[in-house]
Structures are given as C-alpha cells and as structure tokens.
Give the backbone structure.
Amino acid sequence: MAPPILKLDGISLSFGGAPLLDGAELQVEPGDRICLVGRNGSGKSTLLKIASGEVEPQSGEIFRHPSATIRYLPQAPDFGEHATVQAYAEAGLGPNDDLHRVNYLLEHLGLDGAADPQTLSGGEARRAALAKVLAPEPDILLLDEPTNHLDLPTIEWLEEELLRTRGALLVISHDRRFLERVSRATIWLDRGRSLRLDRGFEHFEAWRDTVLEAEELEQHKLGRQIEREEHWLRYGVTARRKRNMRRLSDLKTMRADFRGHKGPQGRINVEVAEGRDSGKLVIEAEDISKSYGGAPVVREFSMRINRGDCIGIVGPNGAGKTTLLKMLIGELEPDTGFVRHGSKLDIAVLDQRREVLNPEETLAHYLTDGRGDNLLVNGEAKHVTGYMKDFLFAPEQARTPIRNLSGGEKARLVLARILARPSNLLILDEPTNDLDMETLDLLQEVVASYPGTVILVSHDRDFLDRTVTSTLAPANPAAPDGRWIAYAGGYTDMLAQRGAEMREKKALARQEAGRTTAPAAKPQSATRDAARKLSYKQKFALESLPGKIKDAQARLEKIEAEMADPALFAKNPDGFAARAKTHDALKSEIEAMETEWMELEMLREDIEGK
C-alpha cells in the first residue's frame, strides 16, 4: 500500500460551543478520489481548510508529504491585487509548471484572460478559480463546491478533466451526479467524527442508513442494560448486603454515555403553506422574443403552462434562462409577443441572490418581517423559535445576525421564509446552490408534492430528473441563438429525445444527399469533405482504442478473478487493497476510452455520411 501524502489524525476544533470536529481523521494516498459529505455546519469546509493549511486545529496531528503540491479551491475565491484573470490563474503555477496549461484552461472555461477579475460574475469567478487550481496539476486537489454557479456544459467538462487528472482529489459537492462520476471513496463527517467508506458516492446513502440503524440498535441495547443494572442496584441480594463498587462505577459510566449520546441531526419538518387554487391556465406565452444589443436570447417562443406542471429550464450560462423565466412571471416585458397569466396567482420566488439578505438582520426578525415573535403558517400562528426548529435552527439562533450563518444555512433560512407564505406558483432560480444532501432531499419532496405549479432553473441533473415534468432547453446549446424547445420529462429524458432528433436529422440529410445527383453538387461535397477530415491523431486513436480497451478489460478480468479468492484478504490485506485500487482505476480508464472511441466514431460517420 502506498504511503499517504496527506494525513490528519485526531483533529479537534470548536468555536466556543460543542466541538465542530472531535477526533476527525483523513488520509489521502496518491491517486485517491474522495468525496467529503455531511450536513451543512458539520465541518466539511473547515476540515478542507485544515488539510490545506489555512486553519489550524486545536488538537491533532497533521502530515503533509514535503514534496507534494496542494491546491485548494474555496467557496469564495479571493482575487487579491491581480489585474487580469490571466495573472490570477498563473499565480497558481509552480516554478516548473507549464504556462500553456493556463491558456488551455481559460479557453475551455470560456474566460477572457485580459478581463478584470473584480468584474466577473459568480459563474466566471468560479471558473477562474478552477483554472488557477487545475493549472499546476497538483498532487492533491482540494475542491469546495466546485460546481456552484457553473452551467451544465462546464460541469460535464470538469468531470472529464478530473477523471483525466493523475493527482489525488478531495471534493465537497451537493451535486449527486457529479460525485457519483468522480469519487471512488467517501468520507462522512457526522457529529464531529469522520467515517470512511472505500467506495464511491453512489454507495454512500445505503451505507449511511446501515450505520445509523446499527447505532440506534446499540443505543437500545445500552438502555436495556442500564435497566437491568438499576434493577440489580435496587433489588439484588448482593447489592443490599454490600455495594459492588465496580458495578456501580460501570453503571455510572453507562448512564453518562446514554445521556451524552448525540444522535444524528433531526430531519427537517416542513409544512408548506398552501395558497388558493389558481385557474387551470397558469401562464400562456405567445411568440415572445427578447434581445440584448442585437443578440436574441429568446426568439418567437410560445408555451402554455397549466396548473400542476413542473417546468425545468436548463442551458449554458448566457443562454437566457433567467431572462426567459422573468418574462414568463411578468418581471420583464418581451420585445415582441405577449405573456398572459391565469387567475388567482400567488407567486413565491427563490432567486439566485437569496433575496439579497441583510447581514445585520436577525433570523427571527427576517422570518416574521419584524412583526413580533409569531408567524402565520396555513392560517395558524407559530412561535418563531418553534418554526426555526423545524428547519434545524437552534432556539438560541433566533437573535443571531444572518452574517454568522454558513451558505447552506442562509439557503435553508430563505427556504423557511418562502414556504411559510401561501403560494400556488413556486419560482426557483438555482435553488440547489449551497444546500446539503438532506435539505436537497427535502426540497425535492416539497417540489414533487407541491399542490400548485413550479418553474425552476437548475444545473443539478439529479434534481431535475427527480422533480420536473418537462424541460426547456436551447435548441442549439453549443451556440444559443434564442430558440428554445420543450421536452417531456427530466434532464436525462431531454438528452434521450435530443439524441433521437439528431439521429433523425442525420438520416434525413443522408436521404437528401442520396437524391442529389447534380454534377454541381460534387465540387461542393468534395470541398466539404476536404474541410472536414479526421486528423492523424484522431485516426490513430480510432484504430488503436479498441485494442487498448480489450487489453484493459483482460487485465480487469484477471484482477477480479484474483479478488474473488476469499483467502486473499485474510492472507494479504495490502495486496487486496492494491488490487481494489487498480480495479477502480482500470474501470475509469476503460470508461474514458470507450467514451472517446464513441465520440470519434460518431464524428467519422458524420464526415463520411455513412
């Protein structure tokens, strides 16, 4: 087994109250792909800062390999005094790193190297920070919510880039689909401690439930044992004649353990404030268009949204998602066409800016609009501290300024206020940013069971698949031209329908080409084929990849046969672990090669028209 290049042992840290980290452990070996999961406020970002050296723990040991390079992506990048994006990205390079890699990353992330970092949008700032930490190809890459504010094409590009990197990866993210793709091990931060699963995120939730069930069973057994010991203390003959001091001491310890046990953080208890029923027709858009500086972002778009629909809007940054949403709900007038709203609409909006929270306002004042200590939910008065507890806020936080909350807690606070207001049209603009997995699960349940109509903008593929009934996407996502198409189902359904559309278009184009026999068409076709040819590198890859895939699959089968020997783990646990790591690496390598071959084969077919 390779020695660790980063190891945290017995890490403890508190900020005046209960320990945030209490004996947490973390070990990173070369090539590891680890996701760090846990509730908002569980200490994930703090542990990442400790690993990077930005925060010192109160106790514990830290080992970082002297020759290992570490790069850390914080949630809020600091651009310092850098005058350009290029200079900021190059600041992450070491003495022997390749300067050209910065240019490669800026190009693929769609950034202008000459731009002023202080003028970047949230998504552009995140991409610039990614370029800085990815450029040196470090031995350890620490990423805190790397997909926040990124559009779907950039998230999918980042996944491929991380799969190709040779360094170790430790990542925090709320994006399930992203974690499933990039992780091969999971560390769960829970109540200050860390538990490790040597499998990717797709196996985490089932394992977590098993761990919690076993813990609950142990607490039940401890409670029964305490009852037996207390019965002995009161009625046992030996106890009445002479107190057994050792048993008394053990009973005291058991009582302390039982009373001091801190169970998992409670589940959010949400009661959505229901509004009156809207009319059957909620929104009708007829040939609406909107342009900025002559460039169309929405063009001749028509749609009817009925009561009970759940519409998802997807697309790259700058495609016009928020513009389309604002026109649909009446916040923005279209240049042409019209939008008509149905009757009795009560709209609740969760926007990207989280309603521009006042950092000095207290939680109680924000939730009640400054109207005392109560708020109305479904016509019933609720005390603000009781309502806060439903959203996992402690009563003592009622007078806490909003500035003291984490990003996830702020998102949860805004969600609490919105759900307390009666509504029948729920508008969610990037609702999943900063939410932990459990709150995201709750939001999915709220959207799925919402009695009214929902329109949401999101880059979270898993969230879209679980919630929406139809998806709006740009007709040309690679180069949006203002045309939007509605697809039935979620994000995955949209991709499947798009694939069918592309295949149908190719078939029609080939039929048309077959009917075209005019001599004048030949020079045009020849010119087109000359302009579009596979490069030598692409041809070589297309020819060599099947053999490489076959060899890799043979090695994979051999390793699987060796790991199937039940005696291997008992006799040679290090050898078993090494084979397991090689097995995971080979699977990822085969997947990447198969994807590359498929893309090249589709390109070849497109060029040759076969």
